[in-house]
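Colleagues,

For the teaching module next term, I've prepared a clean inverse folding example: a structure given as tokens, and then the sequence designed for it. I'd like students to try predicting residues themselves before seeing the answer, so please don't circulate the second half yet.
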């Protein structure tokens, strides 16, 4: 399957997915064909350039800018590249409705808490972990969900629990959650590339095991 990954920052999830795709053992049966970013100098974009992956700037830095793509141009480019799945990995901008409509059930996001708690507009980065700690929740962990037109509200596909420990700091919790994100995203991308997602009649997506 052909994958487009969207990144705004360091891109550690993107790197793990890409490494899974290029590893000799063929752990992920996919190819990262495009990296999309709103931040052309971020770590994820630099990694893409040094690995020969085309980098697209989206959205345009300012509406009148000659740099960057409009939503319809982005959809056209994704189609030209034959993209099967769009993977958001620390992409901080809202995905435009044109893209959501063009790739139904084909856009995934990773969020660093157990949705539907601690998500939504304004809850990103360290704020998510601060909110989880402040709530007194004993577990946090990554959620991978399909993307709709709002922040963090699409159907949940996969989660993994990470224990909150006494005297946790947001930074320590973030690191433990990020380690789980890397494992979970690679597992999920492996499953989507093998067409192991089944949609239950009530609209809930499930990952089928290999056997
Ligand atoms: C991750 O915590 C992800 O859950 C969130 O943004 C962070 C991205 O980290 N959406 P990285 O850029 O993949 O290192």
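(Answer key — instructors only)
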């Amino acid at each position: 399957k052909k994958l487009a990954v969207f990144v705004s920052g360091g891109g550690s999830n993107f790197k793990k997915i890409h490494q899974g795709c290029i590893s000799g053992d063929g752990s992920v049966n996919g190819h990262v064909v495009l990296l999309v970013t709103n931040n052309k100098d971020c770590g994820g974009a630099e990694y893409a350039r040094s690995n020969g992956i085309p980098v697209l700037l989206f959205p345009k830095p300012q509406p009148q800018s000659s740099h960057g793509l409009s939503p319809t141009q982005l959809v056209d480019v994704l189609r030209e590249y034959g993209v099967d799945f769009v993977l958001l990995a620390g992409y901080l901008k809202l995905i435009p409705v044109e893209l959501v409509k063009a790739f139904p059930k084909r856009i995934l996001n990773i969020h660093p808490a157990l949705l539907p708690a601690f998500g939504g507009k304004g809850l990103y980065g360290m704020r998510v972990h601060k909110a989880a700690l402040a709530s007194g929740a004993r577990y946090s962990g990554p959620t991978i969900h399909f993307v709709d037109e709002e922040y963090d509200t699409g159907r949940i596909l996969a989660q993994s629990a990470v224990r909150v420990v006494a005297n946790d700091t947001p930074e320590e919790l973030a690191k433990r959650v990020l380690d789980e994100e890397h494992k979970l995203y690679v597992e999920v991308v492996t499953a989507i590339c093998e067409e192991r997602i089944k949609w239950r009649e009530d609209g809930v997506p499930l990952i089928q095991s290999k056997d």
